[in-house]
Amino acid sequence: METAAPIRRHRSFSFGRVWTIATGTLTQLVRMKVFAFMAIFAVVLIGASFAFADLKTEQELKMLKDVSFAAIQLFCMLFAIAGTAMLIPRDVEDRTLYTILCKPVSRLEYLLGKLGGMVLVLVISLGAMDLLFTGVLHLKQRTVVEQNVAELEYRPFRSQEEREKAVAEIIEVATQQGASWNLQAGMAAILAKSIVLTAVTLLVSTFATSTLFTIMVSLALMVIGHAQGLAREVLLDEADGAVLPRLVAGGVAVLFPDFKTFDVLDAVITGTVVPGVEVLKMGGLCGIYCVLYMLAAWVLFADKEL
Amino acid sequence: MSSVPAVSVEQLTRVFRVPGLRRREFTAVSDVSLEVQPGEVYGLIGPNGSGKSTTMKVLLGLLRATSGKCAIFGRDSARVDSREEVGYLPENPYFYKHLTGAETLEFYGKLCGLRGRELRERIGEMLALVDLEESRDRRLGGYSKGMLQRIGLAQAIIHRPRLVVLDEPTAGVDPLGSRQIRDLILELKRRGITVILSSHLLEQVQEVCDRIGIIFRGRMLREGSLAQITEVGNRSEIVLEGMTPELMEEIRALAAARGAKWIHDGHPRTTLETLFLEVTSAAAEAARASAGKS
């Protein structure tokens, strides 16, 4: 006769349990067809690749990068908020959370699993958009070079050397503004921002009363996060050494993420090389924010009445 | 029998704060104590809002006790590790609709530390036990209420817990589905698993439970074995087969002569559930037989 299992030794924290919840969350979002939004991105990208044909080589590629990065960033950040906001409330509403937390799963593992699942979705969707964008940019770069070199046929040159110099210039500009590893610094910045926003949204959803509330508060935090660096500078400039404004500025800096520190997109779009150390700094900052927000979420969620 | 009870609840009180400006409080459970021995099936019965689910949630660590203690096999139930021993089926659960039956069991099995071949075998066993083998690859979104309850029961016992807590396991399920769940509970009992059951179907509780607690407005009113709790001490019952009117008259006369008051006589009645199941089973049998002939 089969009876109960022998008592297993319980590990207070298990990456296996976190990974199970993370992959479960990934499956949930994939089967909810959340990747459908990438079709909209593809339309935006292909439209943008035809839209700036009258501009100069440099500007044409810059505009394509500008529009594409803006679309990728918007999709990722909105997705980080909307996707995360419904995870916990839905589990509570459907009582699925009861069945999970009644297994030997701690609330921290549950939260980290949800964060991990969203990070997986973000990495996959950003990776797919990155591939599509890099491919389109590469094709555009080739087309633009071919067109511009062909146009040189109608320009008079004093010597063959002068012509070769003009061709080299076109190729140099196209290479600087076209598909390169530097674009990945921009992608890393978008990913880091989206992960921080996911952690913030998860924190909000631990005390929020509805999905709508979570979305609205997280959107507000996203806006504050983009403006807080500027506000802090103004506050500190006007403070002139006063303690209170400095404390307020410090408090704001701790409570809200400073998304300005992830802003390398302008540099990437203009073709300026972003040093590797900057990317590492962004990764580190993203990690610090995640740890802080997840600790706060854990404290709130640990006492949440289910 | 082990000396450590499967479940021990001591003077449990749970007070909720009512949201609002006035700091009002609501006592959902007040000074409730109960003990369930290993292998027992314990029925917690009471009307809606009487504190059954709150007691279960505290026992499962989903809520904190305002005062009092809960332990599962001697371990504080607030500790995560105590849940190694517990399986839980909440009232009206909605599991992830996007997962299939087999994927659902895989998900919960992995949360309990099962992996590889052991997990695959266990999924097969559980699907067979709850009679969902044919629906293993169907998404839960397409499951009926009874099927959801059965997959819920399967996820609750996937890790071979020593204690299973079932909150209204037959709520909204038709009589046939309800009977299947009752049989599963009896199977758990046969396997030596302790069960705590909350249900409105008192007849079913009576069929499967060894001991019962009646909870009302957060207080435990009566508790004990089924025989103790349902016995009417000053009355006796005799059921005879082949009774004749003459014999009946003789017994009546004897009872009157000895000073006993005759309360009632008549034919014993079957339950509506039993009658329903007999009629539908017979009809199904007849349909199968006629299909076999043609």
Question: Can you give a write-up of this model?
Answer:
The complex is a heterodimer of chains A (306) and B (294). Chain A is mainly alpha-helical and 306 residues long. Chain A has one domain (15-302). Chain A has twelve helices and no strands. In chain A, 38% of the residues are buried. Chain B contains nine helices and ten strands. In chain B, the strands form two sheets. In chain B, strands 6-7-8-3-9-10 form a six-stranded mixed beta sheet, sandwiched between helices. A four-stranded antiparallel beta sheet of chain B has the order 2-1-4-5, covered by helices on one side. Chain B folds into two domains: 7-230, Rossmann fold (3-Layer(aba) Sandwich); 239-294, no CATH class. In chain B, helix 2 crosses helix 3 and helix 2 (101-111) packs parallel to helix 4 (145-157). The A-B interface holds A 1-5, 7-8, 10, 12, 14, 16-17, 20-21, 24, 27-28, 31-32, 94-96, 98-106, 303, 305-306 and B 16, 57, 60-64, 80-81, 83-96, 98-99, 103, 107-108, 110-113, 115, 152, 155-156, 159-162, 165, 190-193.
**First CA to last CA of chain A: what distance?**
36 Å
E-strand count of chain B: 10
The greatest interface between two protein chains, and residues involved on each side, is:
A-B, 34 and 45 residues
Low-confidence regions of chain B: none
Number of domains of chain B: 2
Helix coverage percent of residues of chain A?
A: over 70%
Strand order in space, largest sheet of chain B: 6-7-8-3-9-10
Please count the helical segments of chain B.
9
CATH class of the largest domain in chain B reads: Alpha Beta
Question: Which runs of chain A of at least 5 residues are low in confidence (pLDDT < 50)?
Answer: none
